[in-house]
Amino acid sequence: MKPTNLSKTYRALTLIVAAALLTAPILTSAQSAGLSGSLEASRSQNFAKDPSRALMLAFFPGLLLHGYGHMYAKDKTIGTTLMAGEIISLAVMGIGAAAKDHPASFQNSFLGSNVERGGRNMILYGAILFTLTWIADVAHAPTAARDYNREHNLTPAFSLGPTGTPNLTVAYRF
Fold first, then answer.
1. What is the span of the domain harbouring residue 99?
2. 149 occurs within a structural domain
3. Which of 76, 101, 152, 160 is the most core-located residue (most Cβ within 10 A)?
4. How far apart are CA 139 and CA 145, in angstroms?
5. How far is CA 17 from CA 5, 49, 66, 89, 129, in A?
């Protein structure tokens, strides 16, 4: 039996969501190793979060896993919210694509009488939500890292002072 476009769409959507859900815990726990020799010791210590690294992590891995920059900055509430927004947007786009491709399956549903237009609108709204959650992660991740550092009274190893001069911080712990 030849797979239809609807089953291909569902299969692709399922693979994307499954990959996001399966890799998120692995990626967020891998960054917590820190600078110390043992994993036990590093989990109990707070290390400064670099705002530029938070921006870079929000930009690329964050494109696939929205909220990744916030997870790096230890702002798990916003990170989880952005990740949930990404999953919802992918689901909305998937349902919209299915409705657009197979309007007969969605007759007399929540989309009303013009199912194809409703499907196109769902794809558009899902894409807007997807883009906005990614932009929110990229725009706010450096601020979340700075807030974390200020809250824990930490300074990054390399930072710029108030006058723009570079500061190099050396820290050690016993």
1. 5-168
2. yes
3. 101
4. 12
5. 18, 28, 12, 11, 16
Per the domain annotation, does 174 fall within a domain? no
Residue 115 lies in a domain: yes
Q: Helices 51-59 and 115-151: crossing angle, nearest 10°?
A: 160
Rg (CA), the chain: 21
Q: What pLDDT score was predicted for residue 36?
A: 44
Q: What is the mean pLDDT of the chain?
A: 77
Instruction: Assess contact for 48 and 25: CB atoms under 8 A.
Output: no
- Amino acid letter, residue 165: T
Query: Structural domain tally of the chain?
Result: 1
CA gap 87, 84 in Å, rounded:
5
For the segment 149-170, the average pLDDT, to the nearest whole number, is 71
Q: Which element (helix H / strand E) includes 167?
A: strand 166-168
- Beta-carbon neighbour count of residue 107 at 10 Å? 10
Looking at the predicted structure, is the pLDDT value of residue 145 above 70? Answer: yes
Inside any domain, residue 173: no
Whole-number Å distance between alpha carbons of 81 and 171: 33
